[in-house]
Amino acid sequence: MPPTQTFVNVGTSLTLAQVLRVARDNAPTQLDPAAREKISASRAWVEQIIARGEPITYGVNTGFGVFANAQVSSAQARALMRKLILSHAVGVGEPLPEQVVRAAMLIRANALAQGFSGVRIELVETLLEMLNRGVHPIIPAKGSVGASGDLAPLSHLALVLSTDEQDRDDESGAAFFRGERVSGKIAMERAGIPRLILEAKEGLALNNGTAISTALTLLAAADARNLITHSAHAVGLTLEALRGASNAFDARIHDAARHRGQQEIAAQLRALIQGSQLVDKARRVQDAYSLRCAPQVLGAALEALDYASARLQEEINAATDNPLIFVEGAQGVALSGGNFHGEMVAMAAAFLAIAVAELGSISERRTFRLLDGKLNDGLPMMLVERGGLNSGLMMAQVTAAALVSENKTLAHPDVLDSIPTSANQEDHVPMAANAARHLREIVWNTEYILAIEIMSAAQAIDLRLRNEGRDVEMLGAGTRAIFTRLREHVPFLAEDRILDRDLNQIVELVRTRALLDA
């Protein structure tokens, strides 16, 4: 670990930025000393239940789901936990990305460290050691309905962390350790982390929560924030290329609307095009909606993102398993509830999916306008000289259209598609993990849709400057810096060439925020 990195404390109040640091920058973690007393108190009360055999407590001395009324003796507590993990590890599909797994592990550790889950301190510390030493369980992406939490994927995590007296390698799941895929048992041995035999309540505490759905949504939300900023920059470049009307971004218009997000986007656009000698030169009274109404659309997306981020901030600090244990002095009570139900995350993901899909939808319309010789204010069709011999950016817009169409399908709210499970004990589920995965795909699609607009706008600006016989000094202060940085990596299209390389380069510039650094 780099010595300059500060530890992220677990068991206090995590921030979204801290989760990103751990997930993407491998920031080290540690259990906050203040959390230890809370964890120990709830664990002590669970052990009292085991010792007395009463009261009957879900998941401690009973079965699970439809078997909630089936009593299990204290002597069978370990077997109950192991069978829970083995039976529930039925995820399918490609493994989740490493950063998602890291975020989920941190979120789950923080939930257990709230002191309402009845687990041992060693369980939380094992999760943190896995993060710090780079043991990343291989978790299939599909198989969760988001209630009772992300049971299947989190059980694949628990396979790596836990064991039984037989300690079988073939029942230890799989993990990446230092880039190599090995069994969970081998990964933990190489990392020097003992695997735990789960005690009463601990298996249920591990897999009964929203950590996977939340991790996926949180990471997608961070990328969505970056997309909104780049969307504004794409609009600025397109305004320059089409010599658009700046009056649509006058602060008085947006103050009259009273929407904070809209006001922020309009202010960004005014700053980008300040000093431009191209904007307003066409002397149009007003532009088409994809330009004129950009602050309204991007601003709405920004406010949707702020709403989703607030819900995610709450969720990463929530206790989400069942039952929850509340201890006051020597007295304790286990309360069965439904904090594992991922409705809040599923709705946030659905709202954000719609917002990001709209970013892509309006971007593609601007790209179309740039390429159409009847709409682009005198530029050549498909933004290429010697059209016919050259096809220019024709197929780039086709790709954008395909991605926008896919986004429309993916943005259907998964939260509306409940399918009852567990013999109707779980008769309403939110499909939060599906919503989060689809949001991630929409974000990926939209990165490429925006890259296509940025590529098109830059091509149009080059052609415009050649027509004017002028240089980049005609551009606004902000758009000039972005255009100049872009041209350091992606050259002007003088004749047809393979464009996917250009697109991938622009997407990388967007993801790393290199254009913003300009």
List the topology elements.
Elements: E1 8-10, H1 16-25, E2 29-31, H2 33-52, H3 77-88, E3 92-95, H4 98-112, H5 121-133, E4 135-137, E5 140-142, H6 151-161, E6 162-163, E7 174-177, E8 180-183, H7 184-191, E9 196-197, H8 202-207, H9 211-242, H10 251-257, H11 260-272, H12 289-292, H13 294-315, E10 324-328, E11 331-335, H14 343-371, H15 394-410, H16 432-468, H17 477-487, H18 500-511, H19 514-517
Parallel strand pairs: 1-2, 6-9
Antiparallel strand pairs: 3-5, 4-7, 7-8, 10-11
Describe the structure.
This protein is mainly alpha-helical. It folds into two domains: 8-209, Fumarase C, Chain B, domain 1; 216-318 and 353-517, Fumarase C, Chain A, domain 2. It is 55% helix and 7% strand. The protein has helices at residues 16-25, 33-52, 77-88, 98-112, 121-133, 151-161, 184-191, 202-207, 211-242, 251-257, 260-272, 289-292, 294-315, 343-371, 394-410, 432-468, 477-487, 500-511, 514-517; strands at 8-10, 29-31, 92-95, 135-137, 140-142, 162-163, 174-177, 180-183, 196-197, 324-328, 331-335. The strands form five sheets. A three-stranded antiparallel sheet has the order 4-7-8. A two-stranded parallel ribbon has the order 1-2. It has a two-stranded antiparallel ribbon with strand order 3-5. β1, α1 and β2 (29-31) form a beta-alpha-beta unit. It is elongated and about 85 Å long. The mean pLDDT is 96.
